[in-house]
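hiii so um. not sure if this is the right channel but i have a protein structure encoded as tokens and i wanna go backwards to a sequence. like what aa goes where. can anyone help
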């Protein structure tokens, strides 16, 4: 399996509780390398654009409000099979269903405030990385 990149967000519930390091350690211990990282306060327009695929879903408005409720840390992660590996390390969307040892099992507060975002395909990873990072900001 070739080295791959994926996109991650440490969400406001985690930055609020000062868990940026704890979450990043779980990603690194899981075999992923942080090759780009920055802390941002998302605008409403940025959050709506990022989650445009969910625009028709009932939780869209609340999700956007949550994502702009505090700082986030956007990251590019690199490693073997990085998209799938990151999803394993994150755990299920609803922390009640997440496996032991996953970021969401350990740290998430709810199905909405679930501490991390991770791309669900290589195609979406490329789109999401380009949404936040210029190529020269990624140093592998
Ligand atoms: N979400 C929510 N309510 C739901 C499902 C999802 O608030 O019933 C939020 C949650 O923060 C989730 C995000 O919307 O991480 C995107 O949902 P998706 O189904 O893509 O889950 P993910 O890929 O993040 O596991």
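sure thing!! here u go:
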């Amino acid at each position: 399996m070739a080295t791959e990149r994926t996109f991650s967000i440490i969400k406001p519930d985690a930055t609020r509780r000062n868990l940026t390091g704890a979450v990043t350690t779980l990603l690194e211990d899981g075999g992923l390398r942080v090759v780009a990282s920055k802390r941002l306060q998302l605008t409403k327009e940025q959050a709506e654009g990022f989650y445009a695929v969910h625009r028709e879903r009932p939780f869209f408005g609340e999700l956007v409000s949550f994502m702009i409720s505090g700082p986030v840390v956007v990251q590019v992660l690199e490693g073997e099979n990085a998209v799938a590996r990151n999803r394993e390390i994150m755990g299920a969307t609803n922390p009640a269903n997440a496996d032991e040892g996953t970021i969401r099992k350990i740290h998430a507060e709810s199905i909405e405030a679930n501490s991390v975002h991770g791309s669900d395909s290589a195609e979406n990873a490329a789109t999401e990385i380009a949404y936040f990072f210029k190529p020269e900001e990624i140093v592998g």
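oh and The beta strands are 3-10, 33-40, 72-80, 116-118.
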